[in-house]
Write a structure and sequence with these properties.
0% strand, 10 helices
Length: 185
């Protein structure tokens, strides 16, 4: 990251404040970085750090969604490192909101199993590579659920599934398909 960039510099100062236990100062610096952002890269970086200092799961989700939207617009090497953390943070936020738990029975685990079967038939190795390890390794712990939710969220946000498979994924998540993401307040 380029420390001559004002957004990156403010975020670096915010991380130093964070490490020193000065959470309010860190949040203020990340907010200044957001206000100073003039392009999608700056907004992505600032939103990533702002998300960490929100008081409600709704706000955490909103800022992580903003970061994802900006990263997707860029689609270059500068933001590639954000994606793993970002998808994990999105899954955790959905879980905290109660809308990220995988359902059980016909609308949950059976839907996910049906989706995996369709992915095998289509030989969608990318989606299978994301979903199978946490699906097969799920022992019912909170960590296992988070890993599976993260994988499901990554597949969902890739927008690469045909409509019928996307509907199965939504059924497995126990929530209706979402037309879009809310913008940060």
């Amino acid at each position: 990251m380029d420390l001559d960039d004002p957004v990156v510099r403010l975020c670096a100062e915010g991380m130093q404040a964070e490490a020193a236990g000065r959470s309010d100062e860190a949040h203020a610096l990340f907010r200044q970085a957001w206000d100073a952002a003039t392009d999608d890269y700056g907004a992505c970086v600032a939103a990533h750090y702002l998300a960490r200092h929100q008081k409600t799961p709704e706000d955490v989700l909103r800022w992580n969604q903003e970061c994802l939207e900006r990263a997707d617009r860029l689609g270059d090497e500068r933001v590639r490192g954000f994606y793993p953390s970002l998808h994990l943070n999105l899954a955790r936020a959905h879980d905290e909101l109660g809308d990220g738990t995988l359902g059980t029975g016909p609308s949950g685990s059976e839907a996910l199993a049906e989706l995996l079967g369709k992915l095998c038939e289509r030989k969608d190795f990318r989606a299978l590579g994301l979903l199978l390890p946490p699906y097969l390794g799920d022992l019912g712990t909170a960590e296992d659920r988070t890993a599976l939710l993260t994988a499901v969220q990554m597949v969902r946000l890739s927008a690469s599934l045909p409509e019928d498979e996307a509907a199965l994924l939504d059924r497995a998540m126990g929530e209706p398909a979402q037309a879009g993401r809310p913008a940060p307040a």
